[in-house]
Each structure stands twice: as C-alpha cells, then as structure tokens.
Amino acid sequence: MGLFNSLSQAVCLLSFATSLAGAQKAEGSAFTDATSQISFWNTKVASTGGYEFGIALPPDGSAKNDEYIGRLVGVIGAKGGWSGISHKGPMTNSLLLLAWADGDKVTTSFRWATEYSLPDPYGGNATLTEISHKVNATHFELVYQCQGCWNWEQDAETTASQDPATVDSLALGYAQGKQSPAPVTDVNGRISFHDNGFGIYTVDVANARQEGYEGFLGGSSSSPNSPSSGSSNSSSSSGSSGSSGSSGSSGSSQPQLVC
Ligand code: HEM
Ligand SMILES: *[C@@H]1O[C@H](CO)[C@@H](O)[C@H](O)[C@H]1NC(C)=O
Ligand SMILES: *[C@@H]1O[C@H](CO)[C@@H](O)[C@H](O)[C@H]1NC(C)=O
Ligand SMILES: *[C@@H]1O[C@H](CO)[C@@H](O)[C@H](O)[C@H]1NC(C)=O
C-alpha cells in the first residue's frame, strides 16, 4: 500500500508534468451526427489521436433530469486504448464511464474512485443503453443514452451528484489510456493509467440542451432516422459515413482546462 501510494504519486507528478507540457485544449461546438441525426454539444480534446465527447440534454424544464445522450469518440492505438469521462470533472467522487473497442464491439464500464488509483466498479444504478457504435482501424465511436447518470450512490455512505437542472455550467472530465483494459472482454477488467491525457473542462448547460431530445430516443418527434434504444451498429474498417467535424457550429467556445 505504501509502495502503491508512492508509485501513484510518482505517476501523478509525471503525468502532471506531461499534461502541462502537452497543453491539451478542449474546444466545444454544436455538432450533428450524420448517421443518427442526433445533435450534441461536442468537445474535442487535442489528445494524440483524438478524443471527442458530445452531450445532449433533455430540454429545459423536462422531468428527465437524471439522464443525457452521449457520443464518445476515442483513438485506437497499437495496444488498443480506452477513453472515459468523469460526470463531475474530477476523477474522485464522480461517476466515471470508460469505453473501449473489443473487436468491432464497444465495451463500457461504470467506475468510481475515492482516490487517485485504480477505480472500483460502480455500485449504483446507472444504465447505459447503446444507440449506435462504430469501430474502424483507428477509432471507436459510441452513441448512448445514460440514465441515472447525474445522481450517484456508490454505497449508502457515498453519494454525490451534478444536477444539470441546477447549474449553468457542467464540469466534465476526460481521460484516455493507450492500453485496453485487461482482459479486453471484461467490463470490470484492470484499467491502465490514462497516459494519453486527462483533465477537466466545462460545458454550458444551455448549449447541451436539445429540443429534439425525445425524438433522438425514437420517441415522438420529427427527427429523421431516429434510432431505437439498444440497436447497435458496427461497421469495421471503413467506418463512418461522413462524421466530418462540426456542422452548424453556433460559435466556438474554449472551455477552461483545469489539470
Ligand atoms: C489505474 C487507473 C487510474 C489511475 C492510477 C489514475 C490516477 C490519476 C492521478 C494520479 C490523477 C491526478 C493527476 C494530477 O492531478 O496530476 C488523475 C486525474 C484524473 N483522472 Fe485518473 N486514474 C486512473 C483511472 C481513471 C479513470 C478510469 C478515469 C475516467 C474514466 C480517470 C479520470 C481522471 C480525471 C478526469 C482526472 C483529472 C481531474 C482530477 O485531477 O481529478 N482516471 N488520475
Ligand atoms: C435503475 O435505473 C433504471 C433506468 O433509470 C430503471 O429502469 C430501474 O428500475 C432502476 N433499478 C433500480 C433497482 O433502481
Ligand atoms: C449501420 O451503419 C451503416 C453505415 O452507416 C448502414 O449502412 C447500416 O445499415 C447500419 N446498420 C444498422 C443495423 O443500423
Ligand atoms: C474512423 O472512425 C472515426 C470515428 O467514427 C472517424 O472520425 C474516422 O473518420 C474513421 N476513419 C475512417 C478511415 O473512416
């Protein structure tokens, strides 16, 4: 334990220095996914190979305060890799979600960390429903609905939240590791350190809200190609049909990075 602490302190110092040197930027803009026609507030992080996280929240005043639709794009390198988010910004005391490619599937895992070391499986009730996914030679992409994802209960004593209905700005964290969890098939597999970047950025809640939210879920609304929950789409190697950059960018902002 003493050894592990000093190890992770060393890792911490090292990665802190790296992240300062790397000066990763996070930039947000409006984005509509060409395949699903779902609109997101999409943040791109300048990691090696790329990281993108798009978020769509139900419209203001919706009763659905504890969910969102997410789109996560992560790089796949020589050893695979994982990409993840923190639903509150920091690694600790916040719902963590990781995703990684396993063949042409995308596997996800909810985790929880009380310190800066290997996170535990999440003990609460967060539900991820895949809307679509893609895997090609260099990237994976996952579009999903996340329910029970803003109010967390790791155990009876450990609760936390970030409620989009009560804040103007959401703090979110990103993290990316160059090595897939092991075994790659195991949602509770061992995670390697985020050696391809980590940090915190913010998203204005108003930018993330989407009037068409219900339609994106296949409900009553006028969205073309509404995907139905649980359907998955994997297209290996040739990948996406034109998910090129942001469309209809309604002004870029440069969220603050707090590493
Ligand atoms: C073996 C697993 C992991 C270890 C040893 C680890 C270790 C650390 C350390 C030492 C820091 C602090 C670095 C600094 O401030 O200089 C950190 C930050 C961070 N980690 Fe992790 N981490 C792990 C897994 C994860 C996972 C799975 C996620 C998310 C899915 C994550 C998200 C973050 C974020 C967002 C930060 C920056 C914000 C903060 O400092 O709290 N980490 N991690
Ligand atoms: C967990 O959350 C899902 C989705 O919100 C819900 O359908 C289910 O009833 C919940 N289960 C428990 C045990 O709370
Ligand atoms: C998956 O996506 C590809 C290309 O975007 C499309 O041709 C195919 O019909 C989709 N499959 C499913 C099951 O949605
Ligand atoms: C691979 O997938 C990513 C994410 O969907 C996409 O941005 C990229 O253009 C794809 N690459 C190719 C060669 O299709």
UniProtKB/TrEMBL annotation:
Transmembrane segments: none annotated. Keywords: Signal. CDD domains: CDH_like_cytochrome. It comes from the Eukaryota. Residues 31-214 form the Cellobiose dehydrogenase-like cytochrome domain. Residues 219-253 have a biased composition (Low complexity). Residues 1-23 form the signal peptide. Residues 214-259 are annotated as: Disordered. InterPro entries: Cellobiose_DH-like_cyt, GMC_Oxidoreductase_CD. This is CBD9-like protein. It comes from Eremomyces bilateralis CBS 781.70. The lineage of its organism: Eukaryota, Fungi, Dikarya, Ascomycota, Pezizomycotina.
